[in-house]
Every structure is written in structure tokens, then in C-alpha cells.
Design brief:
This protein is of the alpha/beta class and 297 residues long. The protein has 2 domains: 123 residues, Response regulator (Rossmann fold, 3-Layer(aba) Sandwich); 132 residues, Alpha-Beta Plaits (2-Layer Sandwich), CATH 3.30.70. The longest helix is centred in the middle third of the chain and has 46 residues.
Length: 297
């Protein structure tokens, strides 16, 4: 990015302006100028100038009054103002009015550069620092997003995009805590694809992967929003049914069964039926999770 110091010149003398403007532009400044002092404060507030060069003598009023009006505005208190004065005799009044620095007329180009350069450098350094901070914030945000994505990916099964075993174990631990508090039971339902190896051996692993993904999609689509599905192992899916006991389990299992029994699934010109077997356990928050999982499997 090309950093520029935004400078406002308040000067009615065109010869002075002709000297100053090229010098400032060569030193990374964007220059605007006005001939009168009346609207200077408005210009500064609207356009966000970084530095002001203010003439002592203006057609409508003297520069000291303009400077005092600038300093009366809280948002302009710290803006650097360099007064272009007619003689050293008015320096005291200039500083009392709030100037940051002074240049006496007639001035030499080298003097203008020497007076202005420290303020321009400060502005440019601030801009560079702000840009570096923005870049660092962007990088930090990108890293946070990447870490979040990595965390999500670490909890998903790469083939089916449902949750994996790790995510399920975390979820069921949370459900046990909730169950102890609410005294409401939950159910674990294990769905197993019958003869999954048959698809791999007879039709190839691509067909086997299709069957597994289709099974995950159908199970997910048949459950309630609060239920939780994970790929437990190669051909097995574990389902968590919160606040569900035997009656609710029967309804959900029948629903899943109907979906699979009523549909065949085409893959490379062949229709395939997917059959599932089930095992389940109604649990409470105080049950031994390891024993329950072994019993279900």
C-alpha cells in the first residue's frame, strides 16, 4: 500500500503554495489547499487531514483566530498545525494560540522540508503500523478459522460426513451429565449394515462406500433434530436418542426400518437394497458407559 500524509494548506498567497505543494508531494503527501479560514474546521472534521500548514494572514481573518477555533474542537486538539508566519515577532502569539511549529516567511524549500518531515514520518509510521496490525488481525482470524475447521474435521467421519467415534463419546458423556441432572433416561441404538462386505467383494469398494454413505444419509434424515449419529466403525452407526425410553425407541427404529425396506438405491446401473440389524440399550446417567457399549456391540 502507498502510504500518504493528508495535508491541508490554508494560504491565499499563490506563490507560497506553488513552492510548498511540489515539495510535499515529493515527500509522500497528498495536498489540498484553501484560501480562506472560514471553513477550515469543517474541512478538517470531514476529510481527516493529518497535518495543517496555516498562514498567519488570510483574506477573511487572521490565522491565529483560525488556529484557536481548531484547538477548541476536541477531535482536532492533537492535529499538527505548522503556522507560516510573517516574522519571528509573532511566534509567541502563534504558540499561545496552539501551533505545533512555525515557519517564517519568506522560507527556503529546505526549511519547509525540515519542518514538515518529522510530522509526515510520524503519520506514515502510524499508517504502516495500523496496516501491519490489520494484516496480523487478518492472519489471526484466518488461523482461528483454520483451527476451527480442523477441530470440526477431527470430529467428522471423512467418508460419510457424520460424526466420528471420538465426537460421539464426547457427546454421550455430556448426555450422561444431563441425564443425572434431569433424571431422564436416554437410549443408544446401534445400526449395523447387514452383509456390508458383500458389496465390497461382489461390486467393489466404490460400491461399498456408496452403501455406507447412503446409510448415513438415510439414518440422519429419519431422526429428530436433537438426536445424534456417528459412524461407530466400518459398517456400524451409533445413534444417541436423548430423553427416549423403550416406547420412543420402537417408534424411531420402525421409522428407520421402513425407510430402508421401502427403497432400493441405484449405483452404476444396479439397484441395491440395504438391510440393517439393530441393538439398543436404554440408559441412565449413572450407568457404566464402557459396559453399556460392550453390551450393545
Amino acid at each position: 500500500m502507498n502510504h500518504l500524509c493528508n495535508v491541508l494548506i490554508v494560504e491565499a498567497d499563490s506563490k507560497s503554495v506553488e513552492i510548498i505543494v511540489p515539495l510535499l508531494k515529493r515527500h509522500n503527501c497528498k495536498v489540498s489547499y484553501v484560501k480562506q479560514g472560514l471553513n477550515v474546521v469543517t474541512h478538517l472534521q470531514k476529510k481527516g487531514f493529518d497535518l495543517v500548514l496555516l498562514a498567519e494572514n488570510l483574506p477573511d481573518e487572521d490565522g491565529f483566530r483560525v488556529l484557536r477555533r481548531i484547538r477548541e474542537k476536541g477531535d482536532l486538539t492533537n492535529i499538527p498545525v505548522i503556522m507560516m508566519i510573517s516574522s519571528d515577532e509573532v511566534k509567541k502569539e502563534a504558540f499561545e494560540s496552539g501551533t505545533t511549529d512555525c515557519i517564517s516567511k519568506p522560507f527556503l524549500p529546505a526549511e519547509v522540508v525540515a519542518r514538515v518531515s518529522p510530522y509526515v514520518s510520524l503519520v506514515l509510521d502510524k499508517q504502516k503500523y495500523a496496516e501491519e496490525c490489520r494484516k496480523k488481525d487478518q492472519i489471526a482470524a484466518q488461523l482461528d478459522e483454520a483451527f476451527t475447521e480442523m477441530e470440526i474435521m477431527s470430529r467428522l467421519d471423512p467418508l460419510t460426513r457424520v460424526y466420528n467415534r471420538r465426537a460421539f463419546l464426547e457427546k454421550i458423556s455430556d448426555e450422561q451429565i444431563r441425564s443425572r441432572r434431569s433424571q431422564k433416561k436416554f437410549t443408544l441404538l446401534l445400526a449395523n449394515i447387514v452383509r456390508c462386505r458383500h458389496y465390497n467383494e461382489r461390486h467393489g469398494y466404490e460400491c461399498g462406500d456408496f452403501i455406507i454413505k447412503k446409510t448415513a444419509d438415510l439414518i440422519e434424515g429419519s431422526l429428530r433434530e436433537r438426536d445424534f449419529t456417528a459412524r461407530w466403525s466400518g459398517d456400524k452407526f451409533m445413534i444417541l436418542l436423548p430423553e427416549t425410553e423403550a416406547d420412543g425407541l420402537e417408534i424411531i427404529q420402525n421409522k428407520i426400518n421402513r425407510i430402508f425396506l421401502d427403497n432400493t438405491h441405484e449405483f452404476k446401473g444396479m439397484n441395491h437394497r440395504i438391510d440393517l440389524s439393530f441393538s439398543s440399550k436404554v440408559c441412565s446417567g449413572n450407568d457404566d458407559l464402557d459396559l453399556i457399549l460392550k453390551e450393545i456391540e
